[in-house]
Write a structure and sequence with these properties.
The protein is of the alpha/beta class. The chain has 25 helices and 28 strands. Strand 4 and strand 5 form a beta hairpin. Helix 3 packs parallel to helix 19. Bound molecules: ligand MGD (2 copies), iron/sulfur cluster and molybdenum atom.
Length: about 750
């Protein structure tokens, strides 16, 4: 007998509602939930393969513990004993910073990943924190921190209402969107065009998204900051600046005008390879549109001027009056956001409060660059201790960060490593203990992180669709027990972790005059929380204290966990609305348009005006049926165009003697890889593209399908030294590479032979 259950899809940022078909304990089908208040039935091929992803036989079912050099199946008790025995001596002997924590991308897609890692990191007191943010969106956090005083105040384009979208370095037709949570992003772009709006795409590749656009500009990689600075210049030069309702909330306009004076369209045109007249047109169109939004993602962040580009995106939205207005770019308000505090000056955002030990990279948002993880492990310095023990949660940096070979060796040299990961893969194979979370069907779900970037405010919660299999432990309990074991309270009741967070949060709330529970007794409030588990009680607490919450009775119609549970297809909380000045937390209480660290970095951008690297540069690409490094093990999602091939323009191929299908060697600062060529004019001349997340040919992994077509690790071309200096974000796009056709004698049987 089959039944159905609702479950939010955790496989990308779009957060579609799925209706799962379940037979026994197995998910045998998935379709879009037409009644979902947010996704209204949308689903993509990944979501449709939820059952195959969930039921992958290579997923680990029991913990693994290394004994006599071998990872062997063990009990949970043995596994956590080993964690405590591995980490505590390192802390006691070498100090807190010698324990590193690596948090990977799926933490934003799990309930546990939002609730426990902050407690773990705070409990350890380590500064050796590395996350996927520094190979992704850290430049956006830094620019938001500097502009608005809050690194999490990231405006999202109002996709459903805008008249004009300038989309930069993003390919939502494959990625389904990022820092812009929007089920059916492709449909929303088509609807924008259908209602008479315009779409401009800036991307060195003619992507599926670019094909949908009114205009596609194949920019030279890494130069978006120059283009955006020139557009800013044009707005001032042609008197097109119009802040509208933002005027009272913005400071620094004249200083900004002066700061961009050198970036004329004529000055940037050669570097960007975009005509000066076109740059003027882009600025004029942006200013003239009734509403408009500039939106940029990976291609604008993972470059040497990532923070400047991220900042200029918002600058353009601000100068055209499009920030914080419907149809422009607005600040979402999620149901689990903190109780909004009254508008007014805040503490602001500080960078570089400490530095990494080896290369002295500044921290950003409490994090050090993931690019520096290997050297923080393998390099001794006169002062400070290397990282000797590592806790990796949902992270595969051997493939996703620069120079995997070096990191591979570094991880192998650790005194102790624990991975919370469902797979034995390129990274977790180095662990002394692997703690496997259950598959998504057996996990509860709420999008704490992604709702804060959603194009519509809404709240949804899924309880596990299938009960936990015997012998399994929820990821919440795994992370709670891991936290206890790593922080010296091994063996305590994991519920104590949730109880402590509840006490701390309520204890703070009752002291805040703007809180709905001001002056009340935190213990009494805690007793009123509902939910079947610690994480559910924490969700209830956050909902009730949040902007739509019942305030523990103050607003009886407000949200509670019970109310959300009573609406299994979710509760719509309305379109994005103007919120300024409330979100601002800068010292001035205003948008600080030209923050000092940005002003200090602009001379570097000015020097880029004269740079014209002659050779070939590399960019990445994503494929709809894949996700970073961990979805190549699902047969239903592999094959076809989802392959690790090198896209190269016909003119470059001819010049370099590269034939379609033939092996090409790429050489970068960090090493060499060889991949089959796919000659296509979808990349511009001078640019080649290789996807990331491949290279599944390392020994001692358990990814039986992925190893059959392993591909190569594009990040091996990087040595980890190229960073955006303000954010510490890795440069993954626009990287210089040398390219040569592989002679037939050198082709191994693994590669597509020359024909
Ligand atoms: N060259 C290049 N490199 C890139 C990028 C690029 O565009 N180009 N993109 C970068 C970006 S944007 C990102 S976000 C990073 C991603 O890089 P990572 O943060 O390393 O994330 P993934 O590659 O997705 O690997 C996630 C790990 O989590 C595990 N996992 C899957 N589901 C779960 C779960 O439910 N719980 C737990 N605990 N673990 C789980 C997987 O098995 C895998 O080991 O890669 C970056 N690397
Ligand atoms: N199917 C699928 N979906 C995913 C993922 C996945 O791996 N697969 N990963 C998820 C994650 S972790 C993230 S962060 C998001 C990312 O979401 P997106 O940012 O939409 O990701 P990409 O598809 O990599 O698009 C980046 C685009 O930038 C272009 N580009 C490269 N360099 C430059 C440049 O210098 N300037 C400009 N203007 N463009 C440039 C590339 O050609 C590429 O088309 O996707 C998420 N969704
Ligand atoms: S678009 Fe993303 S969230 Fe929606 S079904 Fe596909 S993978 Fe899942
Ligand atoms: Mo990402």
């Amino acid at each position: 007998m089959s039944r159905t259950a609702l479950r939010i899809c955790p496989l990308c940022e779009a957060t579609c509602g799925l209706t799962l078909t379940i037979e026994g304990t197995r998910v045998t089908g998935a379709r879009g939930d037409r009644d979902d208040v947010f996704s209204e039935g949308f689903i993509c091929p990944k979501g449709a393969s939820f059952g195959a992803v969930d039921g992958d036989p290579d997923r680990l079912r029991t913990p693994l513990v290394r004994t006599d050099g071998e990872l062997r199946e063990a009990t949970w008790q043995e596994a956590f004993d080993a964690v405590a025995a591995g980490i505590r001596p390192v802390v006691e002997r070498y100090g807190a910073h010698s324990v590193g924590v690596v948090l990977g991308n799926p933490n934003v897609h799990t309930l546990a990943g939002a609730l426990y890692p902050p407690v773990l990191v705070a409990g350890l007191g380590t500064r050796s924190l590395f996350t996927a943010s520094t190979v992704d969106q850290m430049p956006k956090h830094v620019s938001s921190g500097l502009l608005y005083g809050d690194a999490h105040a990231i405006p999202v384009p109002d996709l459903d209402h805008t008249d004009h979208l300038l989309l930069i370095g993003a390919n939502p037709l494959e990625s389904n969107g990022s820092l812009c949570t929007a089920p059916d992003f492709p449909g929303k772009l088509k609807a924008l065009r259908a209602r008479g709006g315009t779409l401009t795409v800036i991307d060195p590749r003619r992507t599926r998204t670019a094909k949908l656009a009114d205009r596609h500009l194949a920019i030279r990689p890494g130069t978006d900051a120059l283009l955006l600075a020139a557009m800013t210049h044009v707005l001032f030069a042609e008197d097109l600046v119009d802040l509208g309702d933002l005027t009272p909330h913005v400071q620094g306009v004249p200083e900004l005008q002066d700061a961009v004076r050198h970036f004329t369209p004529e000055a940037v045109t050669a570097a960007c390879d975009i005509d000066a007249g076109v740059i003027r047109a882009l600025a004029r169109e942006l200013a003239a549109a009734p509403t408009a939004a500039v939106y940029a993602r990976i291609g604008s962040c993972t470059v040497p001027y990532g923070t400047l580009a991220s900042w200029l995106v918002d600058v353009l939205n601000i100068l055209t009056g499009n920030l914080d207005r419907p149809g422009g770019a607005l600040f979402p308000q999620a149901a689990t956001d903190k109780t909004p505090r009254p508008a007014g000056p805040g503490r602001g955002f500080r960078l570089a409060r400490w530095h990494s030990r080896v290369s002295k990279h500044p921290e950003a948002k409490g994090e050090l660059p993931l690019s520096a993880l290997a050297e923080e492990i393998d390099t001794a310095t006169p002062e400070g201790e290397p990282v000797r023990a590592l806790i990796a949660v949902a992270a595969n940096p051997v493939l996703s960060a620069p120079d995997g070979d070096r990191l591979d060796k570094a991880l192998h040299s650790l005194d102790f490593m624990v991975s919370v990961d469902p797979y034995l893969n390129e990274t977790s194979r180095h662990a002394h203990v692997v703690l496997p979370p259950p598959p998504p069907s057996q996990s509860a779900h709420h999008d704490f992180a992604l709702n804060a970037f959603a194009v519509r405010n809404q709240v949804r919660y899924s309880r596990p669709a299938v009960p936990l299999e015997p012998g399994r432990m929820s990821e919440s309990e795994i992370l709670a027990r891991l936290t206890l074991a790593a922080t010296g309270t091994h063996g305590a009741d994991p519920a104590a972790v949730d109880a402590m967070v509840v006490q701390q949060t309520l204890g703070k709330a009752v002291k805040e005059p703007h809180s709905p529970v001001y002056g009340q007794d935190p213990r009494t409030l805690a007793d009123r929380l509902t939910g079947e588990s610690g994480p559910e009680r924490r969700l209830d607490m956050m909902l009730r204290l949040g902007p739509y919450g019942d305030g523990f009775g103050l607003r009886p119609d407000g949200l509670t966990l019970e109310k959300v549970l009573a609406h299994p297809h979710g509760i719509d909380l309305g379109p994005l609305r103007p919120r300024l000045p409330q979100p601002l937390k800068t010292g001035s209480g205003k948008i600080e348009l030209l923050p000092q660290p940005i002003a200090d970095d602009l001379p570097r951008l000015r020097r880029a005006l004269d740079e014209r690297p002659g050779g070939i540069v590399l960019v990445g690409r994503r494929h709809l049926r894949s996700n970073n490094s961990w979805m190549h093990n699902v047969p239903a999602l592999t094959g076809g165009t989802n392959r690790c091939t090198l896209h190269i323009h016909p003119a470059d191929a001819e010049r370099l003697g590269v034939r379609d299908g033939a092996a090409v060697r790429l050489k970068g600062s960090g090493g060499e890889v060889t991949a089959p060529a796919e000659v296509t004019d979808a990349v511009r001349p001078g640019v080649v593209s290789l996807p990331h997340g491949w290279g599944h040919d390392r020994p001692a992994t358990r990814m039986s399908h992925a190893v059959k077509d392993p591909g190569v690790n594009v990040n091996q071309l990087l040595d980890g030294s190229l960073l955006d200096p303000l954010s510490g974000n890795a440069v993954l796009n626009g990287v210089p590479v040398e390219i040569s056709a592989v002679k037939i004698s050198a082709v191994t049987e693994k590669l597509t032979p020359l024909t």
